[in-house]
Amino acid sequence: MLDILKGPILALQEFFQLTGSAMRNLWRQPHYTDDILLQMDSIGVGSLPIVALTGFFSGAVMALQLGSTLAQYGQTGRTGEVVSLILVTQLGPVLTGLLVAGRNSSGIASELGSMKVTEQIDAMRALGTDPVQKLVTPRMIATAVMLPCLTVLADFIGMFGGFIIAYYIYGLDPQQYWSTTWRSLAWRDVLQGVVKPFVFSFAVSLIGCYYGLRTTGGTQGVGRATTQAVVAASVTIFFLTFFLTQIFVSQAPA
Amino acid sequence: MMPQEPEQNEGPVLRFDGLTTGFDEAPVLKNVSFEVGKGQTGIIFGAAGSGKSVLLKTAIGLVKAWSGKVQLFDQDITGLSEEQLFDVRSKVGIAFQESALFDSLTIEQNVAYPLLNQKAVKWEPKDVRPRVKEALEFVELGQTLKKFPSELSGGMRRRAAIARAVVTKPPLLLYDSPTAGLDPITAHTIISLIIKERDVDSTSALVVTHRYQDANLIANFRYNPDNGQLVGAPEETGPSTKFMVMREGSLIFHGSQQDIEASTDEYVQKFVKRPD
């Protein structure tokens, strides 16, 4: 029984060690600004189309479903309110987090994994560079900055998707839609919508880096590391969103 | 150029003292002890999986020792932190088995990497490019500065890796299976470069290989700077070379070329092919 637990606990310890050194590097020289910008471009700008598309359709589908359900109670006018609240606090952060996990945790894990199996990580250490400083910290910073931005964008595009449905299918007044959308959001909802992706970003980047750096066993190992990274990052996002929601809900005024 | 004295009075450049290490629970190196003197070339034979590559990585602290000591330039490196190791590593050049060139960087950036990133070797930005060119011309790759590693052949990548290893002019070089998987002509070129580096810059080296002809060339030939060819060296003033054989993590043989050729051990004999 203890032997079964030893593996996961050791892995968790190694993960937190990596997290610790990646964080420590925030205050240590040298800073690889070029790498940070490069990663921001790849993670942020690169994910933009897919995040926009997903945001649009999640908002549209929600409006479509809610519009007909709310009609039973004669409350179609509140479609925008519900869409924006769910989008900003729950769906936006989680969907964007999952998409970026699928796209970037895997990308990070396969890139670092290939470097590991071709001894490039060892070469880096042999040539005077800390691989955590050069590879992990820039990815961590870039994801922490870009994921909240992507989420905010996805939220807006989702509201717009909801608006298209509400206006063209349910014939809602544009001003009514946008004003209820706007008014339904309290500051703590917006805060929740930004804190969540910020927290998720560490799961996305660090889990990708962790699986990449511990890759063994050639090309096959890189494939395995990539899959594991996406699965672990996605599951972690679900766990985190549950606990973060719990915290925000319990803090909400009655 | 005067040949070096085979006997040196200075301390060893690299010394392993009862070193054991490995991954997870299984040891990969078991109680390994040897030393490489200044100007000396150590040659390590061994089958795949015998721990040769791990031995080279342990020599510069990429793999941590479980027990025993590694002494590099009179400094015990076994207890050093990664930060402190960076300084020691800047005195060692290493060419990895599969070249390990950074595939997102050009050959020029790859070779410039140690000059720009090793804190112990301070290079003025304006001096970097000439030195990179010089190192690439040393390995006869002067025309490939702007190319990416994937655009080069296997032999050219090995040469670029050697250029990256020697660019900071380190006094000790480690070569991990430099000729593995290469055709005989390319392999000869690579070994010639190793001999050239040894004789031009008087460096010490540790070469891991499984080809006896490589070792034979290193032990008995010198680089002639006049015509760029290898010439046979007379035995008494020949280069100082040490032969070692590894088997399943242990060093089972240690001695001169005469000793290895006279060895009756069956495993050792498998590596020895007498030049006819």
Any key phrases for this structure?
heterodimer, A: 254 residues, mainly alpha, 8 helices, elongated, B: 276 residues, alpha/beta, Rossmann fold, 6-stranded mixed β-sheet, 4-stranded antiparallel β-sheet, 9 helices, globular, disordered N terminus
Would you kindly provide a brief summary of this structure?
Chain A has helices at residues 2-24, 33-71, 79-117, 120-126, 131-168, 174-183, 187-213, 218-251. Chain A is mostly helical and 254 residues long. Chain B is built from nine helices and twelve strands.
Count of discrete alpha- or pi-helical segments spanning 4 or more residues of chain A: 8
In what order do the strands lie side by side in the largest sheet of chain B?
6-7-8-3-11-12
CATH class of the largest domain in chain B: Alpha Beta
Largest interface: A-B, 12 and 23 residues
Strand content of chain A: under 5%
Distance between the termini of chain A: 45 Å
Rg estimate of chain B, integer Å: 18 Å
The total tally of domains of chain A equals 1
- In CATH terms, what is the architecture of the largest domain in chain B? 3-Layer(aba) Sandwich
Would you mind describing this structure in some detail?
The complex is a heterodimer of chains A (254) and B (276). With 254 residues, chain A is an all-alpha fold. Chain A has one domain (31-249). Chain A has helices at residues 2-24, 33-71, 79-117, 120-126, 131-168, 174-183, 187-213, 218-251. In chain A, α5 crosses α6 (174-183). The N and C termini of chain A lie far apart (45 Å). Chain B contains nine helices and twelve strands. In chain B, α3 (107-117) crosses α4, α4 (125-138) packs across α5 (154-166) and α5 packs parallel to α6 (184-201). The chains are: A mainly alpha (254), B alpha/beta (276). The interface between A and B is medium-sized, with 12 and 23 residues.
